């Protein structure tokens, strides 16, 4: 009989559009993994739309976590996505220290395409630098990797430079650094540093942007890892899943602004 797997998952929740928790949960559920969601911020829709409203749930999150402690649950992994400023970084560290979870995956959501997201500040960056000290696995994109290392996020970095940066980020705490959105020639994919080894996985670049693909990558990566795959196998499978999903979205002319049509793509895992 297979052991039940349980993941505690902190991210934002969008009422409209596919991103964050509405992408994380279907993927992990497809793997047969139980998900306990924690909502950091509640949004009307994801931020790729021309406008949105958002509600910081720090006060509610604090109370929920304190109640959760009374249940004494056992989690196999803690996935951390969007974190609001203020007390939320401290809540994340408290969760890590209290629940003694064996696998901590941090997606350090800070920015993309060479700049911070409008809602992010130096306070967010400094908080994230502190949080990733507690991580086993971090999955920054190239912009976030640059920001966390106090480098210019608008600069284009070649593969050798990204390798060096991944090694330097690992020195801050996480044993595994998986950098997404890495370009090489006409390809795009991931570069992973683990145990002094470099793992890469590239596919032909498709020049479109679809919200939710980062969440889909992190969730599928964690699913593969928890199901017993090596980091190398998990990185390659998760990268292929994203490539196949984006390719299918283009072929079927999905609404790209709405976000990744995850329900139609689960069969690609």
Q: What report would you give on this structure?
A:
This protein has 269 residues and is an alpha/beta fold. The protein is 39% helix and 24% strand. It is built from nine helices and eleven strands. The strands form two sheets. It has a nine-stranded mixed β-sheet with strand order 3-2-1-4-5-8-9-10-11, with helices on both faces. A two-stranded antiparallel ribbon has the order 6-7. Strand 9 and strand 10 form a beta hairpin. Helix 1 packs parallel to helix 7. The radius of gyration is 17 Å and the shape is globular. The model has no long low-confidence stretch (mean pLDDT 95).
Describe the structure using short key phrases.
about 270 residues, alpha/beta, 9-stranded mixed sheet, two-stranded antiparallel ribbon, 9 helices, 11 strands, about 40% helix, about 25% strand
Q: Work out the oligomeric state of the chains in this entry.
A: single chain
Helical residue percent band: 25-40%
> Uncertain runs with pLDDT below 50, 5 residues or more?
none
Taking the sheet with the most strands, its summary is: 9 strands, mixed
**How much of the residues is beta strand, in percent?**
15-25%
